């Protein structure tokens, strides 16, 4: 039972990491590098959108990802009863 | 009060603070010395990580690089922040649960092999020394620029300060001084940026200011976006558009990946996450670290855009005699040089270099001057229209002067530059000393030494490391700039894959890990050495493998590491039962005690 629980917890963790890393990849390598020219045709306030993602937006998304991961994992720790005292 | 006196006051005051903290937080055990007793709060650890991470290069050079290369510099912004996402999700929490002192500790234990441990120790020492040489030089330069002492004297003063709190306080002393250093450096970076932003766009936040419309000299809105205007100005001078890249997409992609994975694999960053009490704290701490780092990293591109606009509008087509005072000051320091190619007495900017290399002068200004009072440059002149050389590093240092900001802001920037360089140097020196005293001495050569002896060895190793770093600061190897590619490339090609697989792939065994590390390292090392040292004349896109520059080759090395490690582990025996249990154990948070030696 305990082993099964640990396995389920790990699977949930991996799923979360996978989802967040896709977002991480899309905003930096996608919006900031691979599709930057296409996005630059869109105006975002005084920025070209691709340029904004490369120099500002990607960093904000990284921040949100790390904080969301920390909060979600804290909840998962409790749900699977593997949290620290 | 004049700038000189204020600078002495600010820098001296910050030093007194660091020394005070060092005395208050003396280390009394190896646990204090290596991981600050494992009791650092996640916010303090976040600030310390940020100070540790942001070096003289981040503080002084990055905004300048952005100002001169526009979009292409985005790889540094994304690369050096995106790595924290990897760190927070893939490495930090599990390494904290593992609960040892150093990175070679993890590699040696997880791969049940002293060969793996020793390879890791060598990498740690090589990566850290590469990095620290530049930091000591940075301290010296800031001293020389602002306090008018000799560069070498500056290095010695910097060594003395680091010596005091790193040797005395170990990780504990370093952590709390880094918190103070973070406050000094971020304040010093933000104040001039906010001033400039208000001046140019009326926005308080530089982050929104550089996407806003520019104000004219009277403070009225011109209705033209700053970046649009900047694109126009630089294109008129023959440069590519500021907001568009000149590098190939594939190279940018690989460099960004090497920087991200390298960041996550740098030992002095990883080790910071051993200092927090729990796994939960390790996760949150990465969030705080990136928040503190992002304050500077989202401001830097704004500073770059403001500074480039300001610089061109102030200097281009201006008569030499009419230029503001900072131009002459930095010409005196040899970081600006002007040749009047068309003999009209005005300074023209244009794409291309004004002359070959960095400026060398016929003599000081009071000895030799040209027809307009300028210092005479003796370099071989090129045949384009560019007349002026401006060193990138002056962007941040001269910004307060360019923006006509009050004297105390200039003094603050000096204190910030020193804080940035010292905090990074101290973190690296600690990693070197613990690699020697803990991983090499205690874990490999002489396992029977007492804790007291180990602590003494750690202090001695720190002393030796400081002396070597100081030597490199005073006699900088000519290749310091080139070897930065090394640090990230090697960390990406060695530590990142091996640690990652150690956590996420239970079946990975010592044969796989060692083979992977060896192949990744050897490949990356020889590629960089070949293009940077053996045949630098071939270092251009058509000769590169897949069009990847030496800066980005760590990514290829990393992929090779993964492939080789996986293949070798499939044909050799799985790791012993108890190792598989360790891996299962580090995956769940419960039961994380303090970091321990046993």
From TrEMBL, chain A:
<keyword id="KW-1133">Transmembrane helix</keyword>
<feature type="domain" description="Sodium symporter small subunit">
    <location>
        <begin position="7"/>
        <end position="83"/>
    </location>
</feature>
<feature type="transmembrane region" description="Helical">
    <location>
        <begin position="51"/>
        <end position="71"/>
    </location>
</feature>
<dbReference type="Pfam" id="PF13937">
    <property type="entry name" value="DUF4212"/>
</dbReference>
<protein>
    <recommendedName>
        <fullName>Sodium symporter small subunit domain-containing protein</fullName>
    </recommendedName>
</protein>
<keyword id="KW-0812">Transmembrane</keyword>
<dbReference type="InterPro" id="IPR019886">
    <property type="entry name" value="Na_symporter_ssu"/>
</dbReference>
<keyword id="KW-0472">Membrane</keyword>
<feature type="transmembrane region" description="Helical">
    <location>
        <begin position="12"/>
        <end position="36"/>
    </location>
</feature>
UniProtKB/TrEMBL annotation, chain B:
<comment type="similarity">
    <text>Belongs to the sodium:solute symporter (SSF) (TC 2.A.21) family.</text>
</comment>
<feature type="transmembrane region" description="Helical">
    <location>
        <begin position="553"/>
        <end position="573"/>
    </location>
</feature>
<feature type="transmembrane region" description="Helical">
    <location>
        <begin position="512"/>
        <end position="533"/>
    </location>
</feature>
<dbReference type="InterPro" id="IPR001734">
    <property type="entry name" value="Na/solute_symporter"/>
</dbReference>
<feature type="transmembrane region" description="Helical">
    <location>
        <begin position="407"/>
        <end position="436"/>
    </location>
</feature>
<dbReference type="InterPro" id="IPR019899">
    <property type="entry name" value="Na/solute_symporter_VC_2705"/>
</dbReference>
<dbReference type="Pfam" id="PF00474">
    <property type="entry name" value="SSF"/>
</dbReference>
<feature type="transmembrane region" description="Helical">
    <location>
        <begin position="115"/>
        <end position="133"/>
    </location>
</feature>
<feature type="transmembrane region" description="Helical">
    <location>
        <begin position="6"/>
        <end position="24"/>
    </location>
</feature>
<feature type="transmembrane region" description="Helical">
    <location>
        <begin position="77"/>
        <end position="95"/>
    </location>
</feature>
<feature type="transmembrane region" description="Helical">
    <location>
        <begin position="286"/>
        <end position="307"/>
    </location>
</feature>
<feature type="transmembrane region" description="Helical">
    <location>
        <begin position="480"/>
        <end position="505"/>
    </location>
</feature>
<keyword id="KW-0812">Transmembrane</keyword>
<keyword id="KW-0813">Transport</keyword>
<feature type="transmembrane region" description="Helical">
    <location>
        <begin position="182"/>
        <end position="205"/>
    </location>
</feature>
<keyword id="KW-0769">Symport</keyword>
<dbReference type="InterPro" id="IPR050277">
    <property type="entry name" value="Sodium:Solute_Symporter"/>
</dbReference>
<feature type="transmembrane region" description="Helical">
    <location>
        <begin position="456"/>
        <end position="474"/>
    </location>
</feature>
<keyword id="KW-1133">Transmembrane helix</keyword>
<feature type="transmembrane region" description="Helical">
    <location>
        <begin position="252"/>
        <end position="274"/>
    </location>
</feature>
<protein>
    <submittedName>
        <fullName>Sodium/solute symporter</fullName>
    </submittedName>
</protein>
<dbReference type="InterPro" id="IPR038377">
    <property type="entry name" value="Na/Glc_symporter_sf"/>
</dbReference>
């Amino acid at each position: 039972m305990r082993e099964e629980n640990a396995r389920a917890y790990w699977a949930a963790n991996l799923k979360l990491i996978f989802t967040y890393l896709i977002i991480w990849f899309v905003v930096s390598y996608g919006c900031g590098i691979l599709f930057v020219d296409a996005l630059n045709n869109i105006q975002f306030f005084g920025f070209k959108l691709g340029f904004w993602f490369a120099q500002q937006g990607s960093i904000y998304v990284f921040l949100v990802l790390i904080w969301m991961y920390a909060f979600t994992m804290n909840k998962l720790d409790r749900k699977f009863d593997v949290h620290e005292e | 009060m004049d700038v000189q006196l204020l600078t002495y006051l600010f820098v001296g005051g910050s030093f007194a603070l660091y020394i005070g903290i060092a005395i208050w937080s003396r280390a009394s055990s190896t646990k204090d010395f290596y991981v600050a007793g494992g009791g650092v709060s996640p916010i303090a650890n976040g600030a310390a990580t940020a100070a540790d991470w942001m070096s003289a290069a981040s503080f002084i050079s990055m905004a300048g690089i952005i100002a001169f290369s526009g979009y292409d510099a985005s790889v540094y912004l994304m690369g050096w922040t995106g790595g924290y996402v990897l760190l927070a999700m893939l490495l930090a929490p599990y390494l904290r649960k593992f609960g040892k002192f150093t990175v070679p500790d993890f590699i040696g234990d997880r791969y049940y092999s002293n060969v793996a441990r020793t390879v890791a120790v060598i990498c740690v020492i090589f990566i850290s020394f590469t990095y620290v040489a530049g930091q000591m030089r940075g301290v010296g330069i800031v001293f020389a620029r602002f306090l008018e002492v000799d560069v070498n004297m500056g290095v010695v003063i910097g060594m003395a300060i680091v010596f005091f709190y790193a040797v005395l306080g170990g990780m504990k002393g370093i952590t709390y001084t880094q918190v103070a250093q973070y406050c000094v450096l971020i304040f010093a970076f933000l104040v001039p940026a906010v001033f400039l932003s208000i001046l140019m766009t009326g926005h308080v936040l530089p982050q929104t200011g550089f996407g806003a419309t520019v104000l004219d000299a009277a403070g009225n809105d011109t209705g033209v976006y700053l970046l649009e205007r900047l694109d126009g100005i630089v294109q008129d001078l023959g440069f590519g558009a500021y907001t568009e890249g000149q590098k190939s997409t594939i190279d940018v992609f690989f460099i960004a990946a090497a920087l991200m994975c390298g960041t996550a694999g740098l030992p002095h960053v990883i080790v910071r996450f051993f200092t927090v009490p729990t796994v939960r704290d390790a996760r949150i701490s990465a969030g705080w670290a990136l928040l503190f780092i992002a304050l500077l990293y989202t401001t830097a591109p704004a500073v770059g855009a403001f500074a480039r606009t300001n610089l061109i509008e102030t200097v281009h087509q201006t008569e030499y005699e009419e230029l503001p005072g900072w131009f002459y000051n930095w010409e005196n320091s040899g970081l600006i040089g002007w040749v009047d190619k068309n003999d009209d007495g005005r300074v023209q900017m244009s794409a291309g270099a004004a002359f070959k290399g960095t400026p060398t002068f016929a003599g000081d200004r009071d000895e030799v001057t040209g027809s307009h009072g300028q210092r005479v440059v003796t370099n071989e002149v090129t045949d384009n229209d560019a007349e002026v050389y401006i060193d990138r590093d002056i962007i941040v240092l001269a910004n307060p002067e360019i923006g006509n900001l009050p004297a105390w802001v200039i003094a603050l920037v000096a204190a910030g530059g020193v804080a940035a360089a010292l905090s990074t140097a101290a973190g690296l020196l600690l990693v070197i000393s613990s690699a020697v005293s803990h991983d090499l001495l205690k874990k490999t050569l002489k396992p029977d030494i007492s804790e007291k002896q180990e602590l003494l060895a750690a202090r001695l190793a720190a002393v030796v490391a400081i002396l070597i770093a100081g030597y490199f600061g005073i006699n900088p190897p000519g290749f310091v700039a080139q070897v930065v590619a090394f640090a990230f490339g090697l960390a990406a090609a060695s530590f990142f894959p091996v640690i990652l697989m150690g956590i996420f792939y239970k079946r990975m065994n010592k044969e796989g890990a060692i083979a992977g590390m060896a192949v990744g390292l050897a490949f990356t090392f020889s590629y960089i050495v070949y293009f940077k040292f053996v045949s630098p004349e071939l270092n251009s896109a058509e000769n590169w493998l897949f069009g990847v520059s030496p800066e980005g080759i760590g990514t290829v090395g990393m992929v090779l590491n993964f492939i080789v490690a996986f293949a070798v582990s499939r044909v050799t025996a799985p790791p012993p039962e108890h190792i598989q249990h360790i891996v299962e154990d580090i995956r769940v948070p419960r039961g994380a005690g303090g970091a321990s030696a046993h």
